[in-house]
Amino acid sequence: MRIMFIGLGLIGGSMAMALSGYPDAAFYAVDRDEWTRFEALGRGIVRSCWASIEDAPLETMDVVILCLHPAAAAAFIKENAHRLKPGSLLTDVCGVKRPLHEAVEALESRHFTYLGGHPMAGRERGGFANATADLFRGSHYILTPDDSVPVGAVRFMERLVLHMGCADIVLSNPEAHDERIGYTSQLMHVMALALCDQHLLFDSYGFEGGSFRGATRVAALEPDLWTELFWVNKETLANLTDELIEKLGEYSALLRSDDREALLARLTASSDRKKEFDRQRSIETSKLPLFK
């Protein structure tokens, strides 16, 4: 089986490393960066690596994994779908799913299977230099199959991501994925950025505890990537941001009031929601089979 990564950045490089030793698989890649190509080849992570998609033998690949930003991944589908091997599997790791699903649906004809994917793992700093084989250990891996995806393709991805060290697979559809990622990931980045915009940031050295470091960790992001992710999902993210502002306003009003008991009741209710979420998650993660 021949597997090609289109892009060997943080995610693509880490996937290639994590899949080392996968049975009967040979790995190939495309990456524009010369140092990345030499490093990946020199370390034996891939057998061959090309600088351009035009020169790469896409037609011979059984699996193609798009490790690109959403717009570039959608462009790849539009420009190269006809080159994919009949019966092959195309998947991706993009943080928003609708643009890619729409690009596939717009094709006049299709002779390959497309199965959208999104590993719930990452780091603040991207690039192959920061890729590691253990990046996905214990993480969720989301798949967004439509009715055209055979069960065998989902099962294959299950085996692949388990080999990478992922904890489980979560199935979704593109719309639900983008809404939930807007809440659990993109909104967290908005919050982290907003905290780092506040006036006390540079006067707070030595006062940072684990809660502050955790809350602001993702603010040191790649602006180009996150601008694209935010923009593609902007309506959902704007609505979630408005809801968050409303909730913060409620806390502000409680703090400015003379009603300490009301504040206690609100903290208790919010804390109980988090505890119930953790309880339900604990139950879910103990269930079999793997798919949820």
Protein described:
The protein is an alpha/beta fold and 292 residues long. It has helices at 10-18, 34-42, 70-80, 98-105, 151-164, 174-196, 210-216, 223-232, 234-256, 260-285, and strands at 2-6, 26-30, 48-50, 63-66, 89-92, 113-119, 140-144, 168-171. The radius of gyration is 21 Å and the shape is elongated.
Largest sheet report: 8 strands, mixed
Class from helix and strand fractions: alpha/beta
Can you count the beta strands? 8
Instruction: Output mean pLDDT.
Output: 93
Please count the helical segments: 10
The parts where pLDDT drops under 50 for at least 5 residues are 288-292
Q: From the alpha-carbon coordinates, what is the Rg to the nearest angstrom?
A: 21 Å
Shape: elongated
Intertermini distance = 28 Å
Strand content: 5-15%
Strand order of the main beta sheet, please?
3-2-1-4-5-6-7-8
